[in-house]
């Protein structure tokens, strides 16, 4: 059996006394990709932020590769691709600068990149086909190019655990396929990947497991067992129409339901 990459036990998060995530428990094995699915406000980003230590749970505990998050971050185990809305795109940095940030954990306090860091940045940019834009200011990128830049930062970090908050939002079909192929390669190398997406149709093509969330975890398990029209309808408070309409969305007839 594979090692546990992310271990979440009984985690509750509240903002100003209002519960956003109630008593979540979850174990993700290394060498697997887990899709995180739920409607707007369901608590997906909150779960990512709790794993990253950006919000402090009121109860419970989270381990990443067996370590509490502050220790996991020191050893470069975990990389996070935030939602685009969380990034200050006016910050005066280039694409290559952002990707180099993925290497900071490997540098000393002066942050002078070495040849390995430069090589990792070069290779990561190549893998997401962004080498041509490496000197462009990040505010001057398209939505899909922004996503690829932060994806490249995560690749450059060479982290064992990847947390990706809606990496396909605003991304065209070809780029989404390229990113999914990269995720599948990382899975083969034993990485643990947790990814939120509103592209329901693509989930079953690359996720081994699925978590359905609606302020608490509604269902979690193998994609074929859990990702059923009935469970999805429940996760979306039956707002997607009847079950045949949910089924057609799963079959890609309505690519982005957000
Ligand atoms: N910093 C915050 N302060 C107060 N409430 C917050 C804060 N961040 C999130 N919330 C609330 O917590 C709940 C969960 O939000 P969260 O961002 O985790 O949802 P989400 O599933 O990621 O949604 P989306 O699909 O829209 O990105 C929402 O009701 C949201 O309004």
Automatic annotation (TrEMBL):
SUPFAM superfamilies per UniProt: P-loop containing nucleoside triphosphate hydrolases (SSF52540)
Chain segments annotated as transmembrane: none
Keyword Transport: yes
Residue ranges of every copy of the ABC transporter domain listed in the record: 6-240
GO terms of molecular function: ATP binding; ATP hydrolysis activity
Domain of life: Bacteria
Pfam families xref list: ABC_tran
Gene3D superfamilies: P-loop containing nucleotide triphosphate hydrolases
UniProt keyword annotations, A-Z: ATP-binding, Nucleotide-binding, Transport
PROSITE patterns named in the record: ABC_TRANSPORTER_2
Family the UniProt entry places it in: Belongs to the ABC transporter superfamily.
Protein name in UniProt: Manganese transporter
Lineage of the species this protein comes from: Bacteria, Bacillati, Cyanobacteriota, Cyanophyceae, Gomontiellales
